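Anyone able to model this chain together with S-adenosyl-L-homocysteine?
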Amino acid sequence: MTPGQVYLVGGGPGSEDLLTLGAVKALAAADVVLYDRLAPHDRLAQFAPTALLIDVGKTPGHHPIPQCDIEGLIVKHALEGSCVVRLKGGDPFVFGRGGEEVMACRAAGVEVTVIPGVSSAVAVPAAAGIAVTHRDVSRMFTVVSGHAPFSETELAGLAGLASTIVVLMGVGNLPQITQGLVRHGLPASTPIAVIERGYTREQRSIFSSLDRIVYDATAACVKSPAVLVIGEVVAYANRDDANAAFVLETAAALAPSE
Ligand code: SAH
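re: yes, here you go
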C-alpha cells in the first residue's frame, strides 16, 4: 500500500464474512478509513487498527456529510500523504457514487485503486434463497435504482424484458413500481420478494405477488435498506436459506481454525 494513495473498496452488503481479502488487506494498511453505514463497520477498529475512522454514513433522506465534502476529505487526506480507504457498501460502482469519487481523485492528481465488492443486487436475493438467473426460468436480471419514480417508458421497458428485476433503494417507491409493472403487462400474480437488512441479524424476507406486496409490506412495516426481486425465480426460492446471517455464522464455526 502506497502513501498518498486512495483505495475505493467495496465492503459487501453488511456482514464482515463478505469482505474480500483485498478489502481486508487495504483496511489493515490504512491510515484513514471513510466508511458508509451499509458497509460492515462494527469491528473496523480491529480490521484497521492504525487508521483514523471517519463515519460519513448515509441513511435515506439524511446525509450527515454531503457528497462533495466526502470527496474533499478523501482528497485532502491523500494529499497529506495518508493511505486512504474509502469503504462503501456492496460494490463501489453499483449506485454507490464510486465513479464520482474516482473522478474527484483523478482531478486532484491522486492515484486511486478500486477493489470491487459483493453487491447486494445479487447477494441479498441469495440471502433469501433466490437465484436471480435460475436455469430455464430466467436468463437475465436487470438491476435498477428505485430511488426516483420510474417513467412510463422505463416501466414499459422493464415489463417487456421478461427479466428478473432487482430494485435497490425501492422501498419508498414500491407502490409506483409494482402498480406500474402490472399496468404495463406483467401478471398481477408475478412473485415478488422484499429482503430487508440482508446478512444482518435483523434480516427478514417477505414473499408476495405484485398485486399484494404493498399490503404485505405495509403490514410488516418494511423499511430501507431492502432489495426487491420481481419475477418467476422468486417462486423457486429455497426459503430454508432465509436467514443468511445464521447460515454464515454456522459456516464460519465449521471452518478449520488457523
Ligand atoms: N453499492 C451498493 C448499493 C448502494 S445503494 C451495492 O452494490 O450493494 C443502497 C441500496 O442497496 C439500499 O437501499 C438497498 O436497496 C441495497 N442494500 C445494500 N445493502 C443491503 C442489505 N444488507 N440488505 C438489503 N438491502 C441492501
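The pocket of S-adenosyl-L-homocysteine is lined by residues 13-14, 38, 89-91, 94-96, 119-121, 124, 168-169, 195, 197-199, 224-227 (CB under 6 Å).
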